[in-house]
Amino acid sequence: MKYLKKKTESFYNFIYDSSLDIKDRTFVVFSVLYFIAVVAALVVGLFLKEPLMSTLTSLGVVVVSMLLLNIIIRKGLYKPAKIVVGFIMIFVFQPAMFITKV
Fold first, then answer.
1. d(Cα 77, Cα 71) in Å, to the nearest integer?
2. DSSP codes, 6-61
3. 71 in helix, strand or coil?
4. Is the pTM of this model over 0.70?
5. Is there a contact between 16 and 6 (Cβ–Cβ < 8 Å)?
6. For residue 57, which of 91, 31, 94 has the smallest C-alpha distance?
7. Residue whose C-alpha is closest to residue 93's, from 59, 52, 46, 66
8. Residue 70: how many other CB atoms lie within 10 Å
């Protein structure tokens, strides 16, 4: 529980840090919201008994999103990360979810 509280405080400190560009802070907020939405979709998919491939795809996105977000925040790679995350969401995740739902 302390780990989660520490991460939450670190996130709030990052978001309210005025030395960082507002675009970078907004990107991190939207990335975290995207991660939460994918986790919620994964949980709902488990309750609705989605196909196994769809569940595995969602789980893969959750893992990749967590790793990518940690790397982005630790190394401060916001500009390339915006392109990479946009590409992954539009050209990888959405088509994969469409194909695995069928």
1. 8
2. HHHHHHHHHHT-TTS-HHHHHHHHHHHHHHHHHHHHHHHHHHTT--HHHHHHHHHH
3. helix
4. no
5. no
6. 94
7. 59
8. 10
Q: pLDDT tens digits for the chain (102 residues)?
A: 787 788 778 778 878 888 878 887 888 788 778 778 878 877 888 888 878 887 787 788 778 877 877 787 778 777 777 787 778 778 877 787 777 765
C-beta atoms surrounding 34 within 10 Å: 16
- Whether 31 contacts 86, CB under 8 Å: no
